[in-house]
TrEMBL record:
It comes from Listeria monocytogenes. The keyword Transmembrane helix applies. This is Uncharacterized protein. The chain crosses the membrane at residues 12-28, 73-92, 99-117, 123-143, 155-173, 179-194, 206-224, 257-278, 290-309, 329-347, 356-376, 382-400, 412-432. The lineage of its organism: Bacteria, Bacillati, Bacillota, Bacilli, Bacillales. InterPro entries: DUF6056. The keyword Cell inner membrane does not apply.
Length: 499
């Protein structure tokens, strides 16, 4: 048994290193785009010298962006490390070293939408705020996962000390993560006291540190402007009531980012929940049999709606776009609640039921602040996505441990799917790197020829990059010239789009 654990540990170590090299390669191939050009020039440093006054309270995220837009090797390294960490940390939290489950985690993280990938993994500014915040939360969960065990948790003095920088630092990347961390810290203390009848120094230290970090973030003058309506970009709609606002945001856009657009994730959620219902949903009273069957129908139909009904058949349930959006929002909510109540109603292990429910509720709760501040994009939901992945990994570990799933029978399909995406991303970003080199060579050649109007070629696979096409006229195009030391008198224009 011990030899088997050591062998699995070595495999996961090798797996982690290879995944690090993969994300390192992707970061090497990914050009800086959009806001990165601003952060990489004097304007970015001016924000730092001003203490990011009235800009935002994402102090650590901003500093990270300043560094990675200036030091290429550090950008490659940190994006490689964090890319691997976001895949491996769910495995550590779930206490598994099974290689098949590791490939499942990789497959799910690579299965994000192209929009989410382009604005997090493939955009330095997005990475500096959202991926970092995700890793901080996962590290915290790795430490406090023992509250879901039967044994009383124990924390070394070094972990208690570490709670201070972790608690404060986690709060200085992105706002909705900051709010979540405070509530999560409070929940951990309350739940632990109810279960073990004692308080733990690590939990209390983390919550106090998280509160300090939250005060530091939201003391930035930018948030006063947002709440008073003086901010030109982010706003809070005060014309609607709270519940009306929540319904309006969820039924028009949030349901897509949070649930519906995640096609790969939805299939995985449905498959594992159906499998759970089939395996443990036996010897039930009549009402539970009805509920189980209804749940299975919902879990079967919903994941097919987006790829087949919408994308393939291009069928709209209503002629009115608003009504169709409302319908999709309601069925998305129904899908989520079905997953949640599958755990609540049918799961028998109480501690694991709480743990799985915590991950599911966290996935939605962490997106809650986005109801009140607009605009938001898919990058804001990488944290929710990570919670869903963590839920799947933890549920999968349970199914394997209970003997409901034989890993040997499904290893080849899962590993093949993951490696297929690895190969696809490798090819895509190799072509992006080649086209970026060609674009810069073309620009330099035109300048050497004395041209005053320089044509900027588009990059390959733009959907996997965040705003790689210059916005002309616009300050980002001007910053592009400054970042790459192009002559000031040169006028840039985009090459016409290819059909």
């Amino acid at each position: 048994m011990l030899n088997s654990l050591k062998k699995d540990g070595v495999k996961i170590g090798v797996f982690s290193f290879i995944i690090f090299l993969f994300y390192l390669y992707l970061s090497y191939c990914t050009p800086l785009t959009h806001d990165d050009w601003t952060w990489g020039i004097r304007l970015g440093m001016n924000r730092y010298y001003d203490g990011f006054k009235d800009y935002n309270g994402r102090y650590f995220g901003n500093i990270c962006e300043l560094i990675i837009t200036r030091i290429d090797w550090f950008r490659f390294l940190i994006m490689g490390v964090f890319g691997a960490a976001i895949v491996v940390l769910p495995l550590l939290i779930a206490k598994t070293a099974k290689l098949t489950i590791a490939f499942l985690s990789l497959f799910l993280m690579l299965g994000v939408t192209s929009d989410m990938f382009s604005s997090t993994f493939a955009w330095a500014a997005g990475f500096a705020n959202y991926n970092t915040a995700t890793i901080c939360i996962l590290v915290y969960l790795l430490i406090i996962k023992n509250i879901f065990y039967e044994e009383t948790p124990k924390y070394s003095i070094w972990l208690v000390i570490f709670a201070v920088p972790l608690g404060i630092g986690s709060q200085l990347f992105v706002e909705h993560a900051t709010i979540y961390n405070v509530f999560a810290g409070a929940f951990v203390i309350i739940y632990s006291f109810m279960k073990f009848r004692k308080f733990f120094a690590f939990h209390i230290t983390y919550l106090i540190s998280a509160l300090i970090g939250a005060v530091i973030m939201f003391s930035n003058g930018a948030y006063v402007k947002i709440f008073t309506g003086a901010d030109n970009y982010r706003t809070i709609d005060t014309d609607m009531g709270i519940f009306e606002k929540i319904y309006s945001i969820f039924s028009t856009s949030m349901y897509k980012f949070l649930i519906m657009n995640n096609i790969v994730l939805n299939f995985a959620l449905a498959i594992f929940c159906i499998f759970l219902l089939v395996k443990i949903g036996t010897n039930l009273p009549t009402w539970k049999i009805w509920v189980k069957n209804i749940f299975i129908v919902i879990l079967t139909v919903y994941p097919l709606y987006r790829p087949i009904i919408v994308d393939r058949m291009q069928l709209s349930i209503f002629t009115d776009v608003a009504k169709t959006s409302e319908f999709e929002a309601w069925i998305s909510l129904l899908f989520y609640l079905t997953i949640l109540f599958t755990i609540i109603l049918f799961f028998k292990k109480s501690s694991l039921k709480v743990e799985l429910s915590f991950y599911l509720i966290s996935a939605v709760f962490i997106a809650g602040p986005l109801f009140f501040v607009t605009p938001f994009g898919s990058r804001c939901f990488i944290l929710s996505y990570a919670f869903f992945v963590l839920f799947i990994v933890r549920l999968f570990v349970y199914l394997v441990d209970e003997g409901f799933v034989n890993l040997k029978t499904i290893s080849i399909p899962i590993i093949t799917l993951a490696l297929s995406l690895v190969l696809a991303y490798s090819i895509i970003f190799a072509q992006i790197k080649i086209s970026d080199n060609e674009r810069m060579d073309s620009i330099q050649q035109q300048i050497d020829e004395g041209k005053k109007v320089v044509t900027v070629k588009p990059l390959k696979h733009e959907k996997f990059l965040w705003n790689s096409r210059l916005m002309i006229p616009g300050f980002q195009a001007d910053n592009f010239k400054i970042f790459f030391n192009l002559p000031k008198d040169v006028q840039l224009k985009n090459a016409p789009e290819e059909n």
